[in-house]
Predict the structure.
Amino acid sequence: MSEPTLLDLTPDALGQALETLGHPAYRAQQVEAAVFHNLAASYDEITTLPVALRRNLAARIPFTVCDPVDFAESPDRETRKTLFRLFDGETIESVTMAYPDRFTACVSSQVGCAVGCPFCASGQGGWVRDLSPGEIVAQVLHAARAASAVGRRLTNVVYMGMGEPFSNYDAVLSSIRILNDPRALGLGARSFTLSTAGDVPGIRRLASESLQVNLAVSLHAGNDELRSSLIPLNRRYPLNALLEACRTYAKITHRRVTFEIALIDGVNDGRTHAVEVAERLRGLLCHVNLIPWNPVPHRRWRRSAAATVEAYQEVLTEAGITTTLRDSRGVEIQAGCGQLRSRHGAGGSGPVTG
Ligand code: SAH
Ligand code: SF4
């Protein structure tokens, strides 16, 4: 959609747009309060505005189209994946995860992904299009409604759904600025995590934004040959350049960088692989998340066995690197994710998000 929709607009931009249409400043505040505090999902739900004004605004600044059309839930109902249909019929998925101490939304930044990692379902289908800021904000607001429905508040947003956030940098940053604005959702900068396959210019650009958001980097291997086979982007930005950019990020922002490692049986989960990673990360302010790989269609790989994951973790721990073993909640839902998209005629499914 070339024209901005409601959720594409920062509070300032909305104020200006309404002023141009001849409305007083308090109208923008009413819209912001309805959308970001009362979580109205359409103009019809903004009952603080007169009906005629709602109709007028809907015609001039359409509400962003991001309609939930299906969902899948983990058996404990704490992880829920939603399929959304966008204005042009494309579909994307987001996940909400309820933990005792936080409620997280995992959002998509693109329809499909151009990076083409062979272990990831999004990579298999290729890139279709970038999401607008509003389409990202809409996913987060949907998650905020889900939180509110169970008496919780949304606390975190992770850009780990479909797509490479740094390939859609401007829209992703705009979505963060909107969600971070106290006049909108008011989520603290530290509540956001951007995950990248290793886009070095993107990491450097983010470091210069003076925004305290968290950076997660998908590492998967500590040697260039293996990493290039898993993440084709590594050919353009090999490990030395990537880790240098991560060091700069940690230095400038004083934030720990998180490294994600999906462990695939017999591919990247050996002791030597763990040692290579430990050596690469020596001296870097970081944390490692280990995730047993989640099978995707057309790949005959298997996820690593629990004992192999533990042995890998031990090598990192002995090297003084803190690690977290991701639980399997996202994994259960991942099965549902493929089902969701194929049920609706789309190819592939989003990355694991547990
Ligand atoms: N494109 C970005 C963010 C989306 S992918 C990136 O690659 O970082 C989010 C995370 O899910 C990444 O760490 C990615 O490597 C991981 N991932 C993708 N497919 C997976 C799978 N099948 N099993 C486990 N992790 C997977
Ligand atoms: Fe794209 Fe990330 Fe999937 Fe790689 S892992 S194909 S970068 S979404």
